[in-house]
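Hey, resending since the last one bounced:
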Amino acid sequence: MAANLDKPNRWKQDTQASVDHYNKWFMKFAPKAFRDTRIEVTRSVEQAILQSSHMRNLSPELLRSQPSVLPTLRMSCCPPLAVDRLIGLADTSKSLVENMEDGKLSARMPAETVALHLAKVVRVISKLLDPDIFVWIPERRAPTAEERHRASTIVADRLTGAVANPIIRNAQEKRQLRVMEAYLIRKGYAKKSHPPNVPLDRMTPGTFTFHYPVVTGNETHKVNVSVDALIQPHVSRANRLPVMVEAKSAGDFTNTNKRRKEEAKKISQLTATYGDGICYVVFLCGYFDSGYLGYEAADGIDWVWEHRIEDFEQLGI
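The structure tokens again:
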């Protein structure tokens, strides 16, 4: 039985709940300096959203009066636009865009030329605004205060995340494993190491272990695939193999594609060795949108949301 891959009708709602779940953790536990920066940037982004009539009225006039808003607009696109990419797509002036990134306009550029290039920038950004962030735009309505704030935090994450994402991700993984461990113990499981020389189908029922190197390949070429958690249900599955779980968190929507490819490679290696009957799932917290989830489902990878951890029950756990 699948936990979530066969339920696309609730993916969008779960993504929003997962983003909120991640943000609550982040605001409470992330390193103070980064957290303070993120809060400040979130306020700035929310102000930009308000100034642009909730991103429905982007105009050259807005950019002329508030050139410092450009980084926010770049990060509001799907995909987020690097400076050089925006310059190329808009066929605009490099010096103008770079000056705007510093919060100013090019003083020596004639006003008519500035207006022309700002219009080009607005056209590109308006076309590429991310509908998964600004959900009210395709629905042609005003946002709720909650939707506006959520959109602000997402864009703020994109603006500030690069410098701290690895640190935050490692802290999140450790926390996710603690959450998983507490849940499994409540369900009557015991944490117990599984000897590497004992086949996986002989793992003791009702036990779990973390950071286990699963051997894949053949006698001439073996490869260890690191799995964050092995869980052998109280009642073993038909093939007696444990459920394999990968803990995944993401602080923004931009970095999930690379990690999806890593997961696809892992399940390919595991399936080649143990057959199609393996149960390999990801334990998700944070920013995983329908695009990511669709690819996971297509690869046969199921998932359990941290905000609804009881979905493990659908996997026999």
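The longest helix spans residues 165-186.

Sorry for the duplicate.
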